[in-house]
Amino acid sequence: MGIPVKQSLAIFAVGAVGVLCFAVCVFKGVTWQGCEMVAIARSVAEHGVFGNPFLTVATGPTATEPPLYPLALALAFKILKTPVAVSLLATIAAIAANIAVAASLPALSREFFHSPTPGMIGGVFCVLATAPLPGWEANWTQFGLVLLVLATVWLLRSPERLIWRGTAAGASAGLISLLNPASALISLPCVAYLVIRRRVSFRGSVRFLAAFVFGAALMNVPWLARNYALWGRPVLRTNFGMTFYGSNNDCAVPSMVVMLLNGCYASTHPNQNLSEALYLRRIGEVAYDRERTADAFAWIRLHPARFAWLTRHRMVEFWLPVPGMPAGVYYVVWAITLLSIPGLVWMLCKREAALALFLAVFLLYPSLYYVVVSDLRYRMPMLWLSCLAAGYFVWRLRETLRNPGRRAVADSVVVPALR
Predict the structure, then answer these.
(1) DSSP for 359-387, written as a single string
(2) What would the pLDDT profile of 83-98 be if each residue is shown by its tens digit?
(3) Does residue 8 have a pLDDT over 80?
(4) 222-235: b or e for each residue (b if 16 or more CB lie within 10 Å)?
(5) How many CB atoms within 10 Å of residue 3?
(6) pTM assigned to the model
(7) Which of 25, 137, 183, 283 is 20 to 30 A from 383, alpha carbon to alpha carbon?
(8) Exposure letters 238-255 (e unless 16+ CB within 10 A, then b)
(9) What is the rounded CA–CA span in Å between residue 128 and residue 138?
């Protein structure tokens, strides 16, 4: 795959100057009040304990969050000491990661659509949608997934040593899963698509994909072993139950932004509810996770209509998130979503093979978040694909309008899609 260097460098340079200037102008130091990953990082830096994620009380060792990003933040705390310095570094690094994603989209576009132009347009969207989330791993998960796709394309250039190449790709995916386990719902479809697209032999495909799964699992073994030693169960995370229950109860609303404002989150989550945190500490995280999961399912059985209403609205808000600050970023995400829909339709009309990948990810990954509160950071790991789909639509529309003989085709594609 040839890398369109000029286009990528242009996007990176313009995005870096614009977004970093914006960040310097508005940055006042991030307090990170209530951010579990930051609390864990400070616990590691100050006490050597991967734990104590909640504001309310120290609860000991934890698996509420995956380990990679809190450990990186802990190293930053060790070196820089002050929270303001760490938050500034993390903010700039998150912005840089997002801009690097934007600069990589022309290369991905050439792989998917045989033209860098959709990626150039999508890269502009990606820069405009830059939402640095220094307290969370979302920007880095997106960055890691884009690097994984580029690396897999490179690894599949040769049919030799596919087992080793698959293991390397799988190890990379495993590292990303230690940022966010849900990333597997993106990484596996991407790698499977590339294996098929590159027309690897059936035997070679089996070897590569089996090695990929092995490599990904191997990277998670130390984390699983640590959790098994603590709780007797090889769990990846222990926060699903508290999030699931906090999202499905009598006071729940679809959006995290609104939940934080109306006090519902504070009344149900151990991060702000002392009695919940003390109960979690007493029975242990794994038992608490299972109990709150059961409580949420019990509430859903008693309130099926309310759960259906919440789920419908969360489905909409995943793609069109409730605006927070800065509001402009959220509206750019709205534009990306709305433009990506006719982009997918146009892919279907043009019989683009990449459509299968886009549909697989757009169906699989969001489904995990339709049952919990909506928040922009849940969208971030797959936003690069939405930017490519939006860029593809703008590219096809521009090409069609340049050729008057094709306008009838544009009408047949665009108008039904926008309806």
Answers:
(1) HHHHHHHHHTTTTS-B-HHHHGGGHHHHH
(2) 888 988 998 899 889 9
(3) no
(4) ebeeebeebbebeb
(5) 13
(6) 0.90
(7) 25
(8) bbbbbbbbbbbbeebbbb
(9) 16
Q: How confident is the model at residue 143 (pLDDT cuts 50, 70, 90)?
A: very high
Residues 6 or more apart whose Cβ sits within 8 Å of residue 313: 254, 374
Helix axes 5-26, 83-113, angle to 10 degrees: 150
For 232-372, where are the alpha helices, taking DSSP H only?
A: 240-247, 256-262, 264-268, 274-283, 285-302, 304-319, 327-349, 355-367
Which one-letter DSSP state was computed for residue 214?
H
Residue 106, token pair as written in the block = 């022309």
For 154-183, how does the pLDDT look when each residue is reduced to its tens digit (9 = 90+)? Answer: 999 888 899 999 999 999 999 999 999 999
| Token pair 């886009």 in the structure block, residue | 358
9 contacts: CB under 8 Å, gap ≥ 6: 103
Burial readout 340-373 (b: 16 or more C-beta within 10 A, e: otherwise): bbbbbbbbeeeebebbebbebbbebbbeebbbbb
Q: How far, CA to CA in Å, does 311 sit from each of 101, 254, 290, 350, 366? A: 30, 8, 21, 33, 12
Q: Which residues pair with 51 in a beta bridge?
A: 61
Could you give the C-alpha distances from 42 to 49, 67, 229, in angstroms and in order?
9, 13, 23
Sign, CA dihedral 292-235-182-36, equals: positive
